[in-house]
Amino acid sequence: MKDLLKKFENKEPEIVFNWKDAETEAEGWTVINSLRGGAAGGGTRMRKGLDMNEVLSLAKTMEVKFSVSGPAIGGAKSGINFDPNDPRKKGVLQRWYKAVSPLLKSYYGTGGDLNVDEIHEVIPFTEECGVWHPQEGVFNGHFKPTEADKINRIGQLRQGVIKVIENPKFSPDVLRKYTVADMITGFGVAEAVRHFYNIYGGDVQGKKAIVQGFGNVGSAAAFYLAEMGAKVVGIIDRDGGVINEEGFSFEEIRMMFLNKDGNKLVAQNMIPFAEINEKIWTLGADIFAPCAASRLVTKDQIDSLITNGLEVISCGANVPFADKEIFFGPIMEETDSKVSLIPDFISNCGMARVFAYFMEKKVQMTDEAIFYDISETIKKALDKAHALNSDKKNISATAFEIALKQLV
């Protein structure tokens, strides 16, 4: 696995597109790791201090993710080094998409990512540039459909991602009109835990869970974990968090979800960040879902969790460990050798899989069909890892080996 990984990491990307904004200090990159299958896909992020290396590592991560979620295409990513709170953000994004639109029409598909919203920014701004849909390049480069077929599938994709969830099993409140895009990644993170126990032995019911981050992914993961009977004992977010050693009830978690302020946890009895960051890692939990930013989880935090009975980690964040390596750094490797670590490209493949699902010919557009498809995709990936290595340890190493054999 290590040799395959080295080969994959060291391979130069096929295309690097570099842009400097004429009107602000913004700079952007699209990195296309490969045009495997004739196309590449990966979202657009914006943050101050972002550099080309970050975009490259995310492009390689996307390629591994597509080996699980489909379609069988290359990995890519776009990143803009600019403050997303700057009032000039809209203009920067509009000029960026204009510059990158030839790629988006030919062989590159994008979507929302950190600080860039799929529905309110990516879709309208790419439309202004004559791109039918942010994923049009994947249709043209990989699927090569007829014009009529392309119109049908793009229509399906457009409707599907913004589809309002009607089934109360999948929505914290059907009246608030949560969409598939709001909930699907966190759903996958929770489903990965459920499938893990079903495949490797055990039951998620009554297991104690800690969730890191309460944005889109973390809040949805907490909601679905609580719904399946896990006991969420702690949530740590940017400004603080909450602890209940007996486990919050499903209704308490649901209300925290409904009361969040954008991507921030809002709750009674909030414990300040410094204090909860001291306490939470020694609470004692069976399940840990890191769903905040990349590269936050330290070796000390993992050691404390393991000492206090940790069984499984389901990654909601891409590359959650504080390693500098693109994929398999020392913290991740050591964690994988001690507990069950479900890698990000399986547990958080929800959105990538939604895109792949809607790109197929005529699919069912019901909540049940969409969510079941994600669940089955994750189950299949864990089944494959289990067939190759039935031990509860080294799940990530095994899953990487399976993925890399398809890519190298």
UniProtKB/TrEMBL annotation:
It comes from the Bacteria. SUPFAM superfamilies: Aminoacid dehydrogenase-like, N-terminal domain, NAD(P)-binding Rossmann-fold domains. The keyword Repressor does not apply. Keywords: Oxidoreductase. Residues 181-408 form the Glutamate/phenylalanine/leucine/valine/L-tryptophan dehydrogenase C-terminal domain. Pfam families: ELFV_dehydrog, ELFV_dehydrog_N. The keyword Signal does not apply. Belongs to the Glu/Leu/Phe/Val dehydrogenases family. This is Glu/Leu/Phe/Val dehydrogenase dimerization domain-containing protein. The lineage of its organism: Bacteria, Pseudomonadati, Bacteroidota, Flavobacteriia, Flavobacteriales.
